[in-house]
């Protein structure tokens, strides 16, 4: 079966995210004064073949651990849907 | 004559400067391509600066999986001297040959300027020709040089004397912020437990020629040759392990 995997990689909470801060300042400058903390991460979509949803998720997590996220500075969320 | 392999990735751009500096100070230096699998008998390996694979995903994240990196890992595991400069440092962290990670500069801007550093550890393959505590002026040029590690990793690096270079103010009254990127503990470079693997953000190859105005980087190229003449890796304890996150 083909699955579509959505991976969301975010800078780990507590680590300085200067990119997020810059966007926060820009939003405030645009008049969105209600803006609170902004954090900028990365979204990755990929298709993969697997026998089951569990297997697809396990493979996707391995991909995150090995390449898609940096275990020192980032956290990730994996969401699998049947294609 | 010791052989220095300078590894080129697509997007490396300090490769010629590094080759030139290594050749000038007594080594036979040559390029190896990221697709090669053989370091061709290298005694010393240098990963130069640049933007390997366009910095896609994260700096150094893709370069880590280049075919040549398996040979580089074996060289390092055997105690061979391995230096990562700037993007090379980012690759060493991504490859878990050094702990921690290099994140976007705290001030968001790309920083290209000379900075002052102290040499805090001279018992490494690349700093043994420096006097302990020597102050150097070396250029930095990076957008992602903010060294970060888990608190216990930082404590371990400090306790084991594995901070090799640290940013310092030129003088006590210097108006300039000494740390160009907001790195933890003002760290500019670190080494592994046995001192054969060193990663630094500053560019010694840009400070290795009187014509260019700065010469503080020269000993990064003479040190591994001095230790080579003593006998490569012979006086060093075996590395504790290749993986070191």
Task: Describe the SSE topology.
The complex is a heterodimer of chains A (83) and B (245).
Chain A: E1 2-11, H1 18-29, E2 42-49, H2 53-68, E3 74-82
Antiparallel strand pairs in A: 1-2, 1-3
Chain B: E1 3-8, H1 15-24, E2 28-33, E3 44-47, H2 68-77, E4 82-85, H3 87-94, E5 101-103, E6 111-119, E7 135-142, E8 146-148, H4 151-159, E9 163-167, E10 187-191, E11 197-200, H5 218-230
Parallel strand pairs in B: 1-2, 1-3, 3-4, 4-11
Antiparallel strand pairs in B: 5-8, 6-7, 6-9, 9-10, 10-11
Would you write up a description of this structure?
- Chain A has 83 residues and is an alpha+beta fold.
- Chain A has one domain: Mth169, Chain: A (2-Layer Sandwich).
- Chain A has 2 helices and 3 strands.
- The longest helix of chain A is centred in the last third of the chain and has 16 residues, at 53-68.
- Chain A is elongated.
- Chain B is of the alpha/beta class.
- Chain B has a single domain (3-230), classed as Rossmann fold.
- Chain B has helices spanning 15-24, 68-77, 87-94, 151-159, 218-230; strands spanning 3-8, 28-33, 44-47, 82-85, 101-103, 111-119, 135-142, 146-148, 163-167, 187-191, 197-200.
- In chain B, strand 1, helix 1 (15-24) and strand 2 form a beta-alpha-beta unit.
- The longest helix of chain B has 13 residues, at 218-230.
- At the A-B interface, helix 1 of A face loops of B.
Keywords:
heterodimer; A: 83 residues; alpha+beta; Mth169, Chain: A; three-stranded antiparallel β-sheet; 33% strand; elongated; B: 245 residues; alpha/beta; Rossmann fold; nine-stranded mixed β-sheet; two-stranded antiparallel ribbon; 11 strands; 23% strand; disordered C terminus
Give the gist of this structure.
The complex is a heterodimer of chains A (about 80) and B (about 240). Chain A has two helices and three strands. Chain A is an alpha+beta fold and about 80 residues long.
């Amino acid at each position: 079966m083909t699955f579509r995997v959505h991976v969301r990689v975010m800078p780990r909470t507590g680590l300085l995210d200067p990119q997020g801060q810059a966007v926060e300042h820009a939003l405030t400058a645009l008049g969105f004064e209600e803006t609170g903390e902004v954090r900028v991460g990365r979204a990755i979509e990929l298709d993969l073949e697997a026998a089951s949803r569990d297997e697809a998720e396990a493979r996707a997590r391995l991909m995150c651990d090995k390449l898609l996220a940096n275990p020192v500075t980032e956290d990730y969320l994996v969401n699998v849907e049947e294609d | 004559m010791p052989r220095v392999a300078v590894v080129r990735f697509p997007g490396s751009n300090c490769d010629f400067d590094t080759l030139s500096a290594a050749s000038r100070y007594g080594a036979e230096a040559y390029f190896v391509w990221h697709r090669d699998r053989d370091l061709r008998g290298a005694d010393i390996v240098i990963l130069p600066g640049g933007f390997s694979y366009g910095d896609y995903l994260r700096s150094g994240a893709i370069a880590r999986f280049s075919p040549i990196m398996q040979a580089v890992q074996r060289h390092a595991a055997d105690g061979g001297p391995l230096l990562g400069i700037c993007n090379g440092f980012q690759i060493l962290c991504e490859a878990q040959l050094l702990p921690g990670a290099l994140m976007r500069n705290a001030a968001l801007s790309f920083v290209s300027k000379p900075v002052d550093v102290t040499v805090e550890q001279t018992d490494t393959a690349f700093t043994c020709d420096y006097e302990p505590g020597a102050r150097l002026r070396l250029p930095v040029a990076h957008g992602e040089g903010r060294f970060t590690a888990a608190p216990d990793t930082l404590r371990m690096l400090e306790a084991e004397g594995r901070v090799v270079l640290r940013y310092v103010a030129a003088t006590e009254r210097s108006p300039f912020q000494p740390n160009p990127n907001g790195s933890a503990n003002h760290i500019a470079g670190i080494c592994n437990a046995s001192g054969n693997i060193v990663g630094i953000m500053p560019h010694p190859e840009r400070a290795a020629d009187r014509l260019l105005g700065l010469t503080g980087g020269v000993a990064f190229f003479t040190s591994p040759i001095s230790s080579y003449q003593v006998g490569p890796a012979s006086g060093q304890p075996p590395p504790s392990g290749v993986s070191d996150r």
